[in-house]
């Protein structure tokens, strides 16, 4: 059966011709992409909004130095409309979620995108597209930090900075699912939510200095960078691990970490079908939930970026693309 006849040849998308402030994001009508060998065409229902999005909008694609024009968006949840030659994992009509092509923008701020089939997994049962679209980048980041990089074990003490943020609130739950004692930094107003997600100890960064009061930590997930790197080292036991998801600069304390007998590394998240499946399993077991703080229609992507850049959101921001 010809599955291509019902798919439009054009689509709405958010594009930018120059790097800059949120107002460079414009709604355009453009050609729909076609899936190549090993790729799928996904009808996008929801696209997550991440710090990587507004940093890319402002500076260009950080991994390659590529410049506009491009369409942003790393997170996606949607329905497969076409499958390319050689794809056996999925069929037309399957519902999927993923973080394809990262660190290159997948182009999720659009009605359709194409990407390698193995960058996706089936959408977790029980989640709406809006919830699933909020998961991939943040959840894979937390998973790859805590499981693949730090190998968190039962009984270990894990410190998660910005614990109520997009990565943080998922990391709290993943660390708890691994049997860790979870410590989070966040404003007092967000403590109730974090307790409901399983945090064991919470520090209001406005009133308590974590670097002065915490010791014997096994793993730190640092999403802040800058001064927090060196201060986080002070909390770690010998043999502990600091994992930053902020690209290091000349203030990254690699030598200090070595002298203190701890490991300090930067981790860049990667597309990961196996990780997505593990995350979906946690969701379906009721051990992981995503908080979607604000939902915007596709055409209001600029507003979503303005809100995200305040740094005051809880959980994730999502663009609703298809009904």
Please specify the SSE layout and strand pairing.
Elements: E1 10-15, E2 26-31, E3 39-49, H1 51-59, E4 76-83, E5 95-98, E6 112-116, E7 120-122, H2 129-133, H3 136-149, E8 157-160, H4 166-177, E9 181-185, H5 191-196, E10 201-203, H6 210-213, E11 217-222, H7 227-233, E12 236-244, H8 254-260, E13 263-266, H9 273-284, E14 292-297, H10 301-308, E15 316-320
Parallel strand pairs: 8-9, 8-11, 9-10, 11-12, 12-13, 14-15
Antiparallel strand pairs: 1-2, 3-4, 3-6, 3-15, 4-5, 5-7
Helix pairs in contact: 3-4
Please give a structural write-up:
With 323 residues, this protein is an alpha/beta fold. It folds into two domains: 10-135 and 290-320, Medium-chain alcohol dehydrogenases, catalytic domain (Quinone Oxidoreductase, Chain A, domain 1, Alpha-Beta Complex), CATH 3.90.180; 138-266, Rossmann fold, CATH 3.40.50.720. Helix content is 26%, strand content 26%. Strands 3, 4, 5, 6, 7, 14 and 15 form a seven-stranded mixed sheet that branches. Helix 3 packs across helix 4 (166-177). 48% of the residues are buried. Residues 1-5 have low confidence and may be disordered.
Would you kindly provide a brief summary of this structure?
The protein is of the alpha/beta class.
